[in-house]
Design brief:
alpha/beta; seven-stranded mixed sheet; 6 helices
């Protein structure tokens, strides 16, 4: 019988934020922003371990109250700056466990700035990752037709310079456009071997379309306002009463 893969979920939540002060603990719909990502992780049946990686003692103390969420370390300050990358944060967590002879096969990155995930999105993504044999996976959303790459241009000094999409023919009809997609930031999955190569996405990349979910990645106060308009409707839709 094949052993179940060991899967590490990582919720990165640093204290600082350029756009919104102390964003991860700011109340959205009466709960800290990080709550919604923790809750979605707790719903997963496939995560072996889920941790919160933070340099903020307040965030870490808040996270400890949730069953099965681990707080194994205080993230070093150099990995909590505006210049720290996601792969550096993820690699730090993976190495923390490797140093203790604990190995994982896959890593799932769950960013609190994307609070709207349907209750089964994490496990659906993991299932697809395992079934596809991919090296990495990212959730995506369809690009609206009016923003399609075929209709996008670089702007030159004398007007539209050239099409961004590398083609000689501009498709005139919306109905003839091929669907195109963008990363929505809700879920990233990668084999641990890929992480150790310094990559979060690479090799064979699978994608899951996150359909019917608000696409809000909170980086600015404008994003926060949009999230506030959605949150109560989202709670009712997702039956929010899970832990509290």
């Amino acid at each position: 019988m094949k052993a179940q893969p060991r899967i590490l979920g990582i919720i990165p939540a640093r204290e600082g934020s350029k756009g919104i002060y102390n964003k991860n603990m700011k109340l959205l719909g009466g709960k800290p922003l990080i709550y919604y990502t923790i809750e979605s992780a707790l719903r997963s049946k496939l995560l072996t371990t889920c941790i919160v990686s933070s340099d903020c003692l307040r965030i870490l103390e808040y996270s400890r109250q949730f069953p099965t969420i681990e707080v194994p370390f205080v993230r070093p300050k150099n990995l909590a700056s505006d210049f720290a990358t996601s792969i550096e944060v993820v690699s730090h967590a993976v190495n923390h466990y490797l140093e203790r002879s604990i190995k994982f096969d896959y890593v799932v990155l769950l960013q609190p700035t994307s609070p709207f995930r349907s209750r089964d999105l994490i496990d659906k993504s993991i299932h697809l990752m395992l079934e596809s044999g991919a090296d990495s996976l990212v959730t995506v959303q369809k690009i609206p037709d009016k923003f399609h790459p075929n209709w996008a241009f670089f702007l030159g000094q004398e007007g539209l310079q050239k099409a961004i999409y590398n083609t000689e023919r501009i498709i005139p009809r919306r109905q003839d456009l091929a669907d195109s997609y963008y990363r929505d930031g809700k879920i990233y999955i990668a084999k641990t071997t890929l992480i150790m190569e310094g990559k979060l996405l690479g090799g064979k990349i699978a994608s899951l379309v996150a359909e019917g979910e608000p696409d809000i990645n909170i980086d600015s106060y404008a994003d926060w306002e949009m999230a506030q308009k959605q949150i109560y409707k989202w709670k009712q839709c997702q039956n929010e009463s899970y832990w509290f």
